[in-house]
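Weekly modeling sync, notes
Attendees: S.R. (lead), two postdocs, one rotation student

Agenda item 3: backlog of single-chain predictions. S.R. asked that every request posted to the team notebook include the full sequence so nobody has to chase files. The rotation student volunteered to paste the first one in as an example of the format we agreed on. Action items at the bottom.

Example entry:
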Amino acid sequence: MTRDILKLSFEFSPKMGVRELPQVDADYQSNVGGLYIVGDLADAPIIKVALNQGYEVACAIWKDLGASTSDEDLLDVVIIGAGPAGIGASLALHETDARYVVLEKSEPFATIQNFPRNKLIFSEPRHIESKGDFWFEDARTDELIERWGQALDDRSLYIQQPVEVTDVQKAAHGFDVTTSTGVVRTRRVMLATGRRGTVNRISVDGEQLEKVRYTLKDPDDHAGRRVLVVGGGDSAVEAACDCADAGAQVTIAYRKAEFTRPKAKNKERLDRYIADGRVAAEMSASPLEITAETVRLKVSGEEKTLENDDVLVFAGTRLPYAFLEKLGIRMQGHMDALRMLWISSFALLTYLFYILKHKKDFFPFGEGDVLGFVPGLFQLDLGFRTVEFSFFGTCLYSLLILVFGIRAYRRYPAKVQKQRYLSLIGFQWVFLFGIPELLAPLVIERPWKVYAMTVPWPLSIWSLVDAPAWANGDTGAAVGWLAAGAIVTFVAIPVFVRYQGERFCSYLCGCGGLAETLGDFWRHLAPRGQTAVKLEQMGRWILLAAVPVTLLILNDAWQFWNAGALYNTKAFAEHWYGLMVDFWLASVVGVALYPYLGNRMWCRFFCPLRAYMEELARRISKITIKSNDKCIGCGECTRFCQMGIDVQSYAQRQDDMDNSDSACIQCGICIQVCPMDVLSIGERNEVTLAF
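Predicted structure, as returned to the notebook:
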């Protein structure tokens, strides 16, 4: 039982499958004032992007400093790390009068130098020029390192190596940087160390032997030798195949039952090598012990010993947490007292707002409560109608979508994203505010019925119900509104889903409008993992609950079955459905948890309309998100996915991502943030009606 609880908590986390990042502001300054973070550690996983980021941040720092001080022993900027970002920063500062130095603990471009010598490195993105007139074109590792080394010599950049930085402390003049050779005084610090702080070890006896390595420098070094490759990602698969090509006897051991992480082309290559007998695969396997001549494995619960000369471990790397913590740098999502206060305050304001908007007689606005007079303050006669707080709440809701929609419009430059945010803002202001709240009251008696056309069943069960009209003898109006609601739900929505998938959630919906605009701040907090995926089933249960509740309310109006017991059942069901679903889940919980669990809690886990559309989409939708073979596994698509989908896994396998096996709402942000132009909207293959 305890194990299940631990598994549940582990499988429901926004950190799964994504790169953990330090907190930085828009200028890449960390929570430690004057200490900037650039490069891969600051979410720039592409070489050219990291180089340009370092260049631009260094320019901004020097502009802020203005000039050097009269103290010649005080540097202006210390750059820690000589990777692409650090070199980019040094290129920028070298063009000025700034006093700077780059401190590198091993050698420039150390990570790239550890790539296999024949690995082809692409100069993506093509449309971006390298800053500082620094040459970068598609090249093999050896050529790239040679040309870059010559460029560093030609530029005479101030690089000290090997020098390890052990501490950075605030000082009156800025910082004291403690290194293996002494203390350096500086006004600003740029941390450009990358993410490969420490390789993950497998923690078995014998791992300290010289035969165990964590990178593949040259496959030819292993020619004629017995090699065990540990891991199941792209690096492990490429290493196994490359060593086999070099003439090694290769076995690859992976802890899972199948290879799911590698790119499609790497997976196909490995499958071919296994089929040809060039690589042996041990699945559900993990090392137990390494000796000078053997490796002992646990394979599917049984022990197995392999004769062995070399072990290559590709278990990934982890951030240098201890070093970052020593510097006082906080990670994104760090839960401190201030963030807890913010989350609690946001939740409280949300609760208070929706009490008034839904006209609930709850504390502190209930009758006799301390703020019981507040609802009455918003009861005003506007001339053309009498309004309560629900009207002003809709005004505020629409204003939030407008203001934060403009922010999102500016944040995402792609044309399709600009169109999407214009659609969300326009639909809210015209169809969810202007017509029902301002225009309709001048024309019809019950203007709220207009929402039947824009808030379909089962998102609003009242879209199919017009009990007052029937009770007043206005059969035509009752039938008309019922027909209108039914046509929207059972005709318009399926047609829309056929050609647009679940884009109603990301282009038109009012709940989605707030999530995509105000909630855009927290889209990266969406829970991920198998537990989160399983919890998406709750929306289907609410969809099933909406059916009898709707039928009971319709029976009250149309008297299909005349029984007092049914009326009591109807009242009970309507009360609890409205309270739990409409008020608590759709309103309070769905919005209050934005800063903690992302902006799509309601839509993803509870909304019956999205559940209805997903059931349609998995059968009839023609839309999908496709991938090419350029994925580098940076994880940006997964991190930005507000529905908690592991988009990267689809991209690496080059599988279509549609609603047959995901909760995708086709917002397209994953396409926008991908630095390699891997993803695109396409048409799903062989879609047929499958009810």
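Discussion: group reviewed the output briefly. The first strand starts at residue 35 and ends at 37.
Action items: rotation student to repeat for the remaining queue; S.R. to check formatting next week.
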